[in-house]
Amino acid sequence: MEQKNLEGGYCRSLTAYERLITREVKVGDLIIGGNHPIRIQSMTTTDTMDTIATVEQSIRMIDAGCELVRITAPSLNDAKNLANIRNELKKRGYTVPLIADIHFTPNAAEAAARIVEKVRVNPGNYADKKKFETIDYSDSTYEEELDRIRERFVPLVKICKEYGTAMRIGTNHGSLSDRIMSRYGDTPLGMVESALEFLRICEDENYFNIVLSMKASNPQVMVQAYRLLIAKMNSAGMNYPLHLGVTEAGEGEDGRIKSAAGIGTLLEDGIGDTIRVSLTEDPEFEIPVAKALVDRYSKRKVLSKPIHDITITGKLNIESDLQLSYSPFEYQRRKSTPVGNFGGHDVPRVIADLSGLENISAAALFSCGYQYVVDADKWNIGDQACDYIFTGNNQVDFDIPGTLGVIVNQKSWEQNRIRNYPLFTFNEYLDSELRSASLNFVLVTIEDIFSDTFNSIKKFSSTTVLVFETENEHGMAEQRRMFIELNRCKIDLPVIIRRSYSLDNVDEISLYASTDNGALFLDGFGDGIWISAPRITARKQLNSTAFGILQASRTRISKTEYISCPSCGRTLFDLQETTAKIRTRTDHLKGIKIGIMGCIVNGPGEMADADYGYVGTGVGKITLYKGREVVSRNIDSEKAVDELINLIRENGDWVERRS
Questions:
Q1: pLDDT tens-digit map of 452-502
Q2: Would you tell me the crossing angle of helices 475-488 and 506-522 to the nearest 10 degrees?
Q3: Whole-angstrom Cα Rg for the chain
Q4: Which pLDDT value is given to residue 80?
Q5: Which residues lie closer than 8 Å to 535 by C-beta, 6 or more apart?
Q6: Which residues pair with 629 in a beta bridge?
Q7: What band does 4 get if pLDDT is binned at 50, 70 and 90?
Q8: Secondary element (H or E) of residue 427
Q9: How far apart are CA 609 and CA 605, in angstroms?
Q10: How far apart are CA 384 and CA 558, in angstroms?
């Protein structure tokens, strides 16, 4: 849809990396915002009353590069014990600022604010309790509710002012209050308004030492909420620093990809002053991931070549007659005319790059999700089997699976056109007299799109799939600019997003690719993904990364999704062990989302985005959910995983694992 003159804006420029400058907030001796570096933080998972365990875990985090340590304070006693933790850390020579994480307990917040450098409050549960009730508020009754909140919240604000304590007002998608849900719905706007209500109270008290966050387990929701928050702040003349994070991201590769897609999308646009990567792992393992994401921008240089003029300063007022063809505040997939199995309503396709191999054998397809069974003379096709392979100038001389297509360079295709599809450069395609009658892939750069001859591509539209490529350091912005121009020219051809990385570290490539591609897919761009890494031999991980990016952006579901929190002192069972158990039993349930929550802080709310939920509600006790609805309460943890499997069976979502 056409979108122009958006109220406020969410970044300084859509086409050049430029940091969004926010006000400075002092947290102890550390400053967040302004031109200061993007800060990295994490959260302890120990019992807050266990001073030594919490101190030693904090030290491991700090030694790994953590700049702010967050510690849960679920009770008044926990909050008071923060003084012992702080003193022990100082005794050992550590002065990193501490943050008290508060849910449900204003008295704990008020005590902590006198001890530590920063408190985090969740506006969804600071003065409200969640019962999933829909309430019909009039304007006057809603104002009465705000007065009630003000009365409960102002004492903390005054303490923070008196003691010089910073505050994060941290909205969580999973814990929006019934009041917010009743007025705004389960939406990014509801998340933003939840924080702004508390922020306005702070400003009325002339307290401004505040950081804001908009966390969700769904990167789409998370990105939209942060953008909308910035737009709202710009319209109101506010510029508070932002803490970024995808909450309940999970573990392993999935958690890293989901975090990079959400956090990286915002970092690409210069947004973010502090980040936390929330993994269901020991907190010190979160730090290297966060550092890898942040370091990319500390090194980013001024672009060596300009992206064609769509520079935006301040507000999203598009220069000349150019208009955004999409809304950055809501997801809508770019419309394209189907070509083969690309575009239209088809899911984005995955292209695996095998062009670096000297010989393409059946064994090479194992990394792409295909396995040839010799005795049965058949192919086994996995849930993450790529749709096409690119072999460059090499030919495939064996029978490939019927679901797989082969892309080759134009000259190679001319020699063998059987089950092969050609890849042209733009000029080759225009000049060639020989093209495939069904499917042609055309490499396109931003220079091609702005050439005088680009519109001539329309006459080949029934067989053409474009492949966007870039060598720009800020390649996401360049490719986004290409999509904007494509839409402006009313060219609705399907587009594959191709990114090539010269690095030799596959884990780093996975994070970068999740950022670069995830940002575009989250905005509805892209009908295919193609990750090329000539120096990488771990092609199976590259293929898995491509599918993971599509899963994180919710554009193609290829596996079970786990929404699992990173654990903290509130956690009532071993999250890592339990998540591993559940994954072992359920990782073949393609498309099912399972929430695994250590406590009820976000558990019930995040269940709204999961099909099934496993939530700690007491020591050794688990409550199971179907969506938001409680199904079984207080199950012994020894039986809970079996009961979860039974619940999935009873609802018709269970399938037996293939042998």
A1: 999 999 888 899 999 999 999 899 999 999 999 999 899 999 999 999 999
A2: 30
A3: 26
A4: 98
A5: 502, 503, 504
A6: 626
A7: very low
A8: helix 426-431
A9: 8
A10: 6
